[in-house]
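Posting for a labmate who doesn't have an account.
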Amino acid sequence: MTAVQVVILFFSALSAAFWIWEIYVVLRTLHTMPLVEKLPESPIKNPPKISVLIPACNEKETLGKAMELRLQDNYPNLEFILIDDRSNDGTREVAREIAARDKRVKLVCIDELPDGWLGKIHALYQGLKHASGDWLLLSDADVHVKPGTLNRVMNYCLSENLDHLAVVPEFYKTNFFMDTALTVFLKALVVMSRSWKIKDKNSRAFGGAGAFTMVKRTALEKTKGFEWLKLEVVDDLTLGQMVKRSSGNSDMINGRGYVGVQWYRTFAEMAIGMGRAMVVGSGNLNFIQLFAVGLLGFILDMMPYIILVPMGVPYLPLAGAVLSLLTFLAAILVNRLIGLPLVSAFFLPLGNILMFFIGLWAGITASIKRGIVWRGKFYSRKELKKGRRFSF
């Protein structure tokens, strides 16, 4: 056996272990994660007040329709804190019209972003000052929430004695290339979360969902708060981690059919957003280290398809065929979990290639600029590293 064949066998075995683990996690997630549609919708006696905090930056095209659906919810003790964060596309005018029509809606306007803050976290920080609820729902402006969702979710929070609940949204169909890349990205998030372990106090597992996160006000007050997260890019995950580390009870459920979002509108927007998350989420890794980690992940992802080609090793193509079927099964299950079209699961190799080059492009760009641009504001990597709170 040649040295090349030994290397191929080594990475094939590593890839097999990697994919078997992923299949296990995805299957267990699908089997154990509660669905909003299965939760009780019975009325709650003395329902706690919910303050829905919705930051919006240039969301004119999506805010009106999303808010129209939210305002149909009949949860009896509810207020909306709509935070316009420096919009220049007419979002503020849309928000004013919504607030004028419904007394449950309060409008908070932000005109300047202080140094040392990311826009969304600063908007939530300001919105919290105007909220009077016992519970806070942190949710993006383009998220669609089906009427009746809040009652079901609050029933679950109370029955499970939770302090924090992340609701994974349904991801609406976009286009072929975006759906294919999203399948890969979201599969990684599902595997990382290990949702069934989040409730376990002895486990380090945690979860978050920027689309829909419920947090008890008293639990948030026991943490270091939004000020501590002011430069944290993955704020939703870090909030879940922060609450759990403060002895809060946390969980994650599936909102398919009740909570939905079109995460990105164009491929360019998706590439910028995902690339930024990968670069900043990598923490203190320099470009060479980031490239090495990304390349290793890419090889493990692609090895089942590579070894389909005969390389002189007996039964290796057969093993590749079995592993390839496992990869497609994992992708199908993930898409079923989050509502993406099943067809994109069958183009998983293309998704892996797209995500690798998105990460590569983002890493090169961030290295050249020595930072990232977000909502028109430049943040140096040094600044973001200092403000990083997320940890594995």
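Reply:
Got it, the structure tokens are right above this. The chain has 14 helices and twelve strands.
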